[in-house]
Structure formats: C-alpha cells, structure tokens
Amino acid sequence: MAFASVPESAKATLKPFKVAIPEDQIEELHSLIQAAKLAPRTYESSQQNRQYGVTYDWMKTTKSTWLNDFDWRKHEKRINSFPHFILPVKNEDGNKYDIHFVALFSKKKDAVPLMLLHGWPGSFLEFLPLLQELQSKYTPETLPYHVIVPSLPGYAFSSRPPLEKNFALKDASYLLNEVMLSLGFGDGYVVQGGDIGSRLSRVMSVLYPSCKAVHLNYCRVIDPPNPQVENELDDIEREGIERHRAFKRSGAAYALEHGTRTSTIGFVLSSSPLALLAWIGEKFLEWTDEDPPLETILESITLYWLTETFPTAIYPYRESQDLNAVDTHANPQWHIKKPFGFSYFPREITPSPRSWIAQTGNLVFFRRHSKGGHFAALEQPKVMLQDIEDFIAQVWSGRE
C-alpha cells in the first residue's frame, strides 16, 4: 500500500492493522437499532431550531437511514484504504499499551514528523479527509511529512485506560510521545490538535523536548478579569465571545455529566445505539458550520458503538471538571514556549480572541477563516492542511 513504508528510523516493530469488525457484532447492532424505541414526540423535540437538542424528526429519519441504508462494510473499506498500524509502547510504570494509528509515511529523508490529535466525540476518522488531500497532492517520494494520526488511549482500537488507577492527560501524552520516539522521531516532531487533542498537544509541548512546535484549532480561554479588554476586540471576536457564553449557558451540560458522573453516563449510552446516536449526533449538528451528511455522523457513532469505547473515551472530562484545577489552556503551567500556531474557525464552540490565545503561548502563526467549526479537519480539510503546511514551513527550519 502506498505511504505504508515504515521509516528506517523506527526503533520498534509495527504491526500492520486492518479494521475487520466481526459480522455478528454488526448483526447485533442492526437488531438493537431495529428494536430500540424512539421517545414520544414532545414540544421540545418538535422545535426545528434544535433549541432543546435533536428533534424527533431527525431521530426518526436517522434511525431509518442507519437501519436500512448505512453499510458499515463500505465505510470499513474506505477506512482500510489508508495504512493502519498497532504500536506497543510502555507507560512510566512499564505497563504495555497498544496504540492504533493511521499513517502516511514519506520516503523523503528530511520529512517532518507530524502528529494529528483528535478529541471527543471525534476519532481518527476526523482526519481522513485531510489525509486524502495529502495523498492527492503528494506521492510517497514527495510527501514532506510523516503523518501519524493515533486513536487516543481509550478510543477506537487503542488500549483502554487501566481499571486500578486514575488516567489523565499527562498519562495519555506520555504514551503519545513514546509513539513518536519509537518511530525514531526523537530529533523533533510537530503536533496538531483540536478539542481534547489541543490540550494533549499543549501538555506534550511542555513536557517533551522532542515536541518542537504546536498547532491548534481549539483554545478555550477564560474571560479576562478586565472588562475593558473586550472593547478592544473586533466584531468577529465579540461574536465569538457571545457564542462562547451561549455554549456555557445551554450547551455544556454534557461535559459536566461526563466529568462528574462518568460511570453513569457510560452505562446509559452503552445500553442503546439510539441513545448514543442522540448524544453524539447532537454534537455533530451543533458544533459544525453546516450539518454533516448523515453517513458521516453514522460512521463515527458506529465506530464508537462497535468498539465499545464511549465509556473509556470520556476520562479527560474528569480533569476539566475538577473545580480546584485551572483549565489546561489557561494554566500557566502549560504555557507553550515553543513556536505556536493557531487556526481560528468561526463556528467553534468556544472561540477565543487572538489576543487571549496569545497569552497562552509563543504565538507566531495565526489565521482566521470565514467558515468552519469544531471539527475543522473534517469540515475544512483543504484549509486546515494549508494552515498546517504554512505553519511548518515558517517554523521548522528555525527550530532548536
């Protein structure tokens, strides 16, 4: 397969991986969708503006599509058109974790290692359109990067967090850095992230010398204490702040549930595929600039269901809901001293002004776009790729 040649620098043996869900799991999912009841129509579920969440009509249509038209095997074939690998790495205690990742490896000697990190309710699937752009633009001989797209620990096909102890951002970041070191990228790599991936990227930049530069498309910054600062913002930034405030008022309850009743919501959303559809589907509808195709939403939800990873994917929310902790992006402990780039998309759930983002790191690259939301790599793959390429071109030659 093109782009699958592992660099000679790799210090570990990679196991090629193919997504192959057993047929009985797919049949079970189909039966569960068929048997699952829709809640009765209510005033709230009849509001087409989705003020109170997903609508009855959307759930009914999407259930029918999932049951009658969605073909997981077709999506599996697309997923497997990219090179996949499993890499065993050890944590600080010497315990082994298998990390799954999609990769596009270059044959160029000076290719820049680049890790792309997703969040929740995302997965490695978010970055497949961006990888397609790279495949169209380059050959293995001309690709300027080694691109690594892992499933975060607890997601998809990567090992799950341990049962006997807590697992936090620093634990996940250690394993991800180990992936890059095992691939022979100890001399330097770039990391890019959104959502939870943005927090992991920030932590990796501070803890690991091999992480040389960071590009983000998410950076939640708490409102500054001086109200006069807001008067210095432009109209787009003020609109973003209002979007942030609206999200805090009526869109963030899910995060509180994830962070404070992690076990309970894990059981609830593992009991019915329609429950998972409503919970995750809402986010794909609300957090994007334009509603994604149903096929795209169903692909992601089906991956979560078939891998049974919703309960193991939401552990980072416990950290973010700790009332005694400072949010990762606002915490001076995680100030990015290395070259820091940012892409601003207007339909992000909590857009922060450039001047506020600049307080959190050495911001040397900033680009604001007119379209796009929380799942930027999925929504605007060409735009996101161009930003990443321009950022790397600006900072890589002058790195430490």
Automatic annotation (TrEMBL):
<feature type="active site" description="Nucleophile">
    <location>
        <position position="195"/>
    </location>
</feature>
<keyword id="KW-0378">Hydrolase</keyword>
<dbReference type="InterPro" id="IPR016292">
    <property type="entry name" value="Epoxide_hydrolase"/>
</dbReference>
<dbReference type="GO" id="GO:0097176">
    <property type="term" value="P:epoxide metabolic process"/>
</dbReference>
<feature type="domain" description="Epoxide hydrolase N-terminal">
    <location>
        <begin position="15"/>
        <end position="127"/>
    </location>
</feature>
<dbReference type="InterPro" id="IPR029058">
    <property type="entry name" value="AB_hydrolase_fold"/>
</dbReference>
<protein>
    <submittedName>
        <fullName>Alpha/beta-hydrolase</fullName>
    </submittedName>
</protein>
<dbReference type="InterPro" id="IPR010497">
    <property type="entry name" value="Epoxide_hydro_N"/>
</dbReference>
<comment type="similarity">
    <text>Belongs to the peptidase S33 family.</text>
</comment>
<dbReference type="InterPro" id="IPR000639">
    <property type="entry name" value="Epox_hydrolase-like"/>
</dbReference>
<dbReference type="GO" id="GO:0004301">
    <property type="term" value="F:epoxide hydrolase activity"/>
</dbReference>
<feature type="active site" description="Proton donor">
    <location>
        <position position="317"/>
    </location>
</feature>
<dbReference type="Pfam" id="PF06441">
    <property type="entry name" value="EHN"/>
</dbReference>
<feature type="active site" description="Proton donor">
    <location>
        <position position="374"/>
    </location>
</feature>
